[in-house]
Amino acid sequence: MLDEFLIRHSAPTLAGLKTANLFWYPWKDEKELGVVLTEWKEIFREKGLDLRVMKINGQRALLYVFRIGKLDQELKRKKTREILKSQGYRYETLDEAVEILKNRMGDNGSFPHEVGLFLGYPEDDVLGFMVNQGKNCKCCGCWKVYCDECSAMKTFCKYKKCEEVYQRLFLAGKPVRQLIVAA
Question: How deeply is 23 buried, as exposed, middle or buried, from its count of CB atoms within 10 A (0-12, 13-18, 19+)?
Fold first, then answer.
């Protein structure tokens, strides 16, 4: 069942087009959830990805799927570090940064504004979102765009096409593990 959610919510990340995705995954049995997550973490590790549980809310787990190398590069960028530092992040490693983000996730399912940096959104758009409190964007797709609308629209189209192709391949019987592009 996690396969379907990965295809639906993480295709661009699986394909190597996007840094990360974050989505809610419903579960019924805690033991089964642990087994499924352990299995997928191993599959992802072989391909240069990781999977983290960011929050548990009732019978749902907030899962964060990310490309380790891409996220590490983005978290080392000067502007990203400055934005995160202004939000109280003090980290040396990717794991430390992800742990801080995890601790900042609201119990009610709210997300801190800087989450966009962990999803690979453009820094200027994340800053624009923070300054404008989510209002006054130029356009809206996978994220709210405040700067380069043309580039963002191209990226949105690329992600949409990827999602369509991955969905079609998955429905045709291709296993998700074969659709993961290695880092």
Answer: middle
